[in-house]
Amino acid sequence: MRILFCASHTKAAPWLDALRAALPGADVQEWQPGAPAAEHAVVWSPPQQFFDEQPGLKVIFNMGAGVDALLSLELPRDALVVRLDDAGMSVQMAEFVCHAVIRHFRELDQYARDVAVGRWSYRRPRARADYPVGIMGLGVLGERVARAVAQFEFPVRGWSRSPKAIPGVQCYAGAEELDEFLAATRILVCLLPLTPDTADILNRRTLSQLIPGAYVVNVARGGHLVDEDLLALLDEGHIAGATLDVFREEPLPRDHAFWRHEAITVTPHTSARTLREETVAQIVDKIHALGRGEAIAGVVDRQRGY
Ligand code: NDP
Ligand code: OXD
Q1: Which of 18, 98, 143, 156 has its CB 3.0 to 4.6 Å from that of 280, i.e. a possible disulfide?
Q2: Which ligand has the minimum distance to the alpha carbon of residue 135?
Q3: Which domains, and CATH codes, for the chain?
């Protein structure tokens, strides 16, 4: 079995070592232009040239959960595209989102500002019932996040394409229930895949429907958010603040207004990182399962876009 590894912004050596150790019989190589043909690929943001040169690939393992960048390339028509299915990401996402929600709800930034100037002051406790949290996307990550937020006894809503039943979460589904979901949400968390249906979904029309004094947490993709609409709604006071981990252009350009806005917290696309050990273990298990002719989780529906 020949496996090509092609991941930009990633040191190849530790990945090659881990894959070779877990698949002793396989020929695992870092891709170089002109490399001999392979059946399996492990990739993150590969160049189009990689696929142009490897039309015989049968399985493409994406080293992340989101496949929007991968699907924007021309891939071998019949290759199976497999995304990361948790692999240690959901617990990271749950802790990141719970932190953002709690930091906003408990006004911890305001306390930090007070403490910085030596002020010992109390704020009136807020009622949890006034801060319903709505999760857009109830997949591998969204469901874990919804369950984690519910542990803190916030009212939790969730929205997905197909109907769901999750204990402690009021679930809405489909475009026809989006408005109802938004109107019942004050802290909005985006965990949707970026597809033609979800691009620009966080815009003036949708964000205006949130309960006034809303807070936005975008941990999915920058292409979900219309930046100017968020800034305008912050200026108008409808939105109180945002935690943004993902951006249309990454790294976020130095002159972007998000850097300087005091109600916006920027993090550098780090809410749930790809973990090497878990990722290699998952890919290797799937290679073995496919070899046995078994079905695997995480196969991307290329038509649907996720
Ligand atoms: P999943 O595919 O497991 O879940 C996607 C969810 O979104 C599903 O519930 C799906 O509905 C829902 N959905 C998709 N399209 C629509 C639509 N048109 N309307 C309503 N709901 C829709 O993905 P993951 O949970 O694994 O990951 C989600 C995203 O998180 C990734 O695509 C990636 O962009 C982002 N991500 C960000 C990271 C970061 O560090 N910032 C790290 C990892 C991922 P249904 O269940 O009905 O199919
Ligand atoms: C992913 C990401 O999609 O890290 O896995 O953004």
Answers
A1: 18
A2: 1
A3: 2-87+274-291 (3.40.50.720), 90-266 (3.40.50.720)
